[in-house]
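Hi R.,

Here's the chain you asked about this morning:
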Amino acid sequence: MGSQPDPRAPVVSRRQLREQAAQAERAQRRGKPAPTTVHAAAQEPASTVLESGQRHAPKPAKSQQQSVPRGPVSRSASWTVRLGVLAALAGVTVVVPLTQKSLPTGGIAADLQAQVELPSTVEALTSSAVPGLPSSLISTDATALRSMVTTSRSEEREELAGCDGSTRAPGTNGQLKTADLCTLWDGKTQLRADAAVSLAVLNEAFVARFGADMCLSSGYRTLSQQISVKAQKGGLAAAPGKSNHGWGLAVDLCSSETSGSKWTWLNQNAPSYGWDNPEWARPGGSGPYERWHWEYTQGVKDDGEYYG
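And here is the predicted structure, written out as tokens:
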């Protein structure tokens, strides 16, 4: 038979054991050593004394298990972290689209954006090769279009190519050499060089205002052409050899330019470019009323038929 329990040993209940274990666990959480006041009977490794007087193998107390001390987490610190994350996300969402160019991220596009500054559409079409731009990015279609644009602009700048406005063509009224005349924007009307250049500059301003070239019905006339016009119009045409058309210093405008806003604009601006509807052709003038007849004033005074 087993040995009888010692009647002098103190009796420890389960409740006391649970309280002692809870105290030890709370002490570990606070970072303090566990209380050392344990009943002698609770320190026995082999058995635990119960109120009934029987001994059983004790279960390991929770206070004896390894655990990492943890303090209570502050609510204010938690919210500070959350607000910081939200602020960072908002900054990325707003700032990045405003400060960076829109290129696909990653890969070749990212490397290209870091190495070179891409040209604008106008630069890509109208300028020469952009330094630093890989040749693989230059489209043959864009090159052809750039060539077309360059050619078009060159033609605009050289609309009166070979026309030297500083020279005066030799010859007589109605008998000027074709090589000494300049052809205007319509491809058919011709004038003496100085008059042609001046009228071309006026036409540029006209186009800027109305979006289209001035419409011309007549320019330089040969002697034979003036004879024909005189026969058709009678008193509305000058005698052959006396018309400033024969000097290449006069034009006749289309009827569309002799009324409304165009007519008003020409009267206000054309004299600044050296062209005018002469006084004799205006209402009450010394000659027939010809709103369409305009002359290069300085040239007429110097070499033409000037009627005052």
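One quick note: The longest helix spans residues 75-99.

Cheers,
M.
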